[in-house]
């Protein structure tokens, strides 16, 4: 017999089968119900209906990967920016409405050769994605994100919540071992500010008062004003990762908790910063930057005589002592400092 042939087998006798199987074998064959024409037509109609309702098939989860920036941590982002600055970061914090100001500020920072060490704390996820799409790695979000729609109105609770996160961001960066220069984005750089970070002090800052100081004024913390505290601007601060700088930031955070926002007292972060400076005086080595290089907006934009007398000395200009986006933009334009209209190609963000 061939190896590929099977031996013929006789079917088993009916009486050797189980009773149920024997009965089934003896019963006349009938067409299966599933193969009847009415059933086939019903099945075809159902398939056509499903094709109309779901032309691309049942819902599927997107196979596109989630944005990598959602899991991007401050530790990773700070290390990225600090590598370009030999351990020093230039920090800003923005929500969506401030993007044009961020771009304008970045043009001037880039001209000073410091853009690579910039880290932007995005205060909403859309801003995080937009910045990193144009400039990968330079933006991070530190959760939880505040309400971006109300964070831009000066004096609002949203603005307070937005600015009160600042000392926490700075403290985290110091705890990672980096030095950091913080700037508000309604500023412009006319020169590199780092040559003015002289000595080995814990904290450097600029005065927010408008009275003209002598060119050789003291670099110590000014005396308190009428409200019992100094009037230092929290808009521009340089900190080293020292115990003194960390002490100041922790005190700033404490003062913010003790002076929360209310409808009666529409606080921002600056009074708390000044109380922290005053209450840690003698424990923190501080340095007041020269007014001629770091003037407040109330002096630079309103005292033309002083501007002429100190021409060539200005380094960072703050567009404060005025509120409202449009007013700030107009003032910058009037003084040739709104650069994004004609020089957006110089911004790492391009035209936004």
From TrEMBL:
So which domain of life are we looking at?
Eukaryota
Kindly state which keywords UniProt assigns to this record, in alphabetical order.
Cell wall biogenesis/degradation, Glycosyltransferase, Golgi apparatus, Membrane, Signal-anchor, Transferase, Transmembrane, Transmembrane helix
**Species annotation:** Oryza barthii
GO terms of molecular function: UDP-xylosyltransferase activity
EC number(s): the record gives 2.4.2.-
Which coarse location class applies to the principal site listed for this UniProt protein? Golgi
PANTHER family, per database record: UDP-D-XYLOSE:L-FUCOSE ALPHA-1,3-D-XYLOSYLTRANSFERASE-RELATED
Which GO biological process annotations does it have?
Answer: rhamnogalacturonan II biosynthetic process
Region Disordered, as annotated, extends over 1-20
Record's GO cellular component terms: Golgi membrane
Which cellular compartments is it found in? Answer: Golgi apparatus membrane
Boundaries of every Nucleotide-diphospho-sugar transferase domain copy: 116-332
The Swiss-Prot or TrEMBL record describes its family as follows: Belongs to the glycosyltransferase 77 family.
Q: What class of enzyme is it?
A: transferase
What is this protein's name?
Answer: Glycosyltransferase
- Bias (Low complexity) occurs at 11-20
What Pfam families does the database record attribute to this sequence?
Nucleotid_trans (PF03407)
**What are the TM regions of this chain, as residue ranges?**
37-57, 77-101
Membrane-topology descriptor: Single-pass type II membrane protein
